[in-house]
User: Fold these one by one.
Assistant:
Number 1:
Amino acid sequence: MLYDQLFVSMERARWNLSRDIDFEAIEPAKLTRQWILDVREVCLAQLAALRATEMFLGGFRADIDFCSFVSVWFYEEMEHHLVLRRYLEHLGEAVEETELPRLRVSADDAPAIDALTLRFFGEQRLSQRYAALAATAPERVLGRIFTLLAAGEARHAAAYATYLRRAVERNPAALPGVLRLGLWTMRGADDAASPAAGVGGASRAQPREDRHYIRRMQGLCRLLAPDSTMVAEDELPALRPAAAGAL
């Protein structure tokens, strides 16, 4: 089982909330009100792991290996929520328990492999976001927290890649769908991050050259199906402008 190796590797890398974060060293005066609000937003957003866990345990109910891994992932995601909540408490910005139920995100169920693909990309984006927050944090303890969270999300992305690769090995016909969903996710993330994005994240920027995405999708293809021949540009029809616009 993949879980056996992942459990050990993640346990070795795991930090300890009680020992590794010096909450008493926090310097509140270094934080602006916007930074506090941003930390609060990230803290509460981590609760999305609740819904994702429910979806995974339902969609993968027959896959004991993956469901076992989800138990570790869920634990670490909730630790991310808790460390940020403790940080806010030391700032006098406690998150009240009565606030939490309304943050339970409800979303339509997705096919199992689609949910796995979206989680793989989501963990990568979180790692990048937390790394950027760590690099710009004006307060040392907060910078350390986001550094730890970034590393954790990167490990999660690697673990999800392992399960996604196994899913493609078991069902090679699923690879084109995974690539199309990956393309849609990459384009959406780039549009949302664009300085030209309009209100609500709608982008007014021109789409990037398809060759930019072809290179990235070829890398994804090699990651998920190392022995596949579907890495040549003319064998990635989903990346052509007409098809991509229809996604």
Number 2:
Amino acid sequence: MLLGLGWIGLKGQTSNIELSGKVIDADSLTPIPSVFIYTASEEGGAITNENGFFSINFNATDTLVFSAVNYQSTFYILPDSLRQGRPYIEVAMEIRTIKLKPLVVKGHLNPAAVRRYLDNVNNRKREENQPNIYRNKPHSEPITTPAGRKHTVSLGTSTRPEGGAALEGALTGLANLFNKRAQQQKRIAALLEAKQNREAQKAYQDFISTKFNQQVVAEATGLNGQQLDDFLQYCNLSNEFIYYATEYELLEAIFARYYRFMGY
């Protein structure tokens, strides 16, 4: 009976042991510093020094957990053969491998595409053929009175009634003639102004279409088909911005919207 109690007491005393050891890299076999070592029951812990050494007092039946940045966590159970005295072990840890999702990289901003885009725009010689309906809006020519002629007519009196009536009739006819001529000149001026406005507007739209169109965007971004059509609708650059923007500013605006469109 005493022997039994003594054996039980001895077993209780040896359940907690002091374990020391070293943690190394499984590939290079170099020591790993700052490895955190703790028990599964979280009753104690330790940290390896700069040479990978550690010492921990724990319940021999518990599981040790070795944890370090960039390494897979390692679990260790002390075998029965080492549950006496002050055992020493070496633990090899493997580097953690992180699997990333596939990433598709598109070379849409290659230097050749940018140079080709800028060359196409510059070859169109914008400065030579650039209309500006905002600053150079055409105006009709003012209606002027021919030199040496006056429209103002003074109606005088005559001692002869028939002479006065004849003069009045002639002056009335002359005034009507000038009035018709003035109205005709106004109509002609209005037609000329409308024609000039149409021509300026057409030149304005042609210039915008030359700077920003499907071919230009396709060369700059590499898009095609339905994706290109969807991007042109998404891009939504104003005509005024396209008209006044430099080639670089326009290209920058296209790519800024391209990034958002593609979700980068």
Number 3:
Amino acid sequence: MSNIIKSNSKGSLIVISGPSGAGKDSICKELENYNNNFWLSISCTTRKPRNGEKDSVDYYFINKNEFEKRIKQGEFLEYAKYNNFYYGTPKSKINEHLNNGIDVILIVEVQGALKIKHKVPEAIFIFIMPPTMKDLIKRLKKRGTETNSNIIERFKKAYKEINEISKYNYVVVNDELDKATKKVNAIIEAQKCRVDRIEELYLNNEEEQIHEFLIDNKIFENKNINL
């Protein structure tokens, strides 16, 4: 007997945002321990690599002229300027992975996420929050890559970003990395059960024969039947 429901096999587009230092990258890396059916899209940026970051692994690091050239060529799903640096999501390979049933995760700034929401409203939008703003400052300082002026700017930016939470579908507080990661994975899995992903309902053939058998034999009228 075939399944009654046939669901859309296309992958989901998951957009993750949150203040710098909230732990977006850490959650996505940890997610690999729970979910192997996703592809983490790599963004382009004009900022310099931080310690330990690798080109084509963490970001595609390109210069401003190259970035603006790609803007004109329409190569980005979205792009935004943040702290005087460009960040953008390349369109290439996103649709390819989605059509192959693979979920695609985008880590983007709030500006970019809202642009994607306008273009792809069915995407899943998750906002990652730090437990407190004090924790956010501690995490930024712990990086050892931010100047005091940069930390102040990121802190101010964080307040503005948090005010956009209502534009997202979900919010996850990253107080414990493992717990926050499990919540994000649960959201992704739950989305696969959405009613609007149903393509067809197979209430025919064997199912109809069973229904007719029950009616013909007046089984529903038997008050003593134990279901």
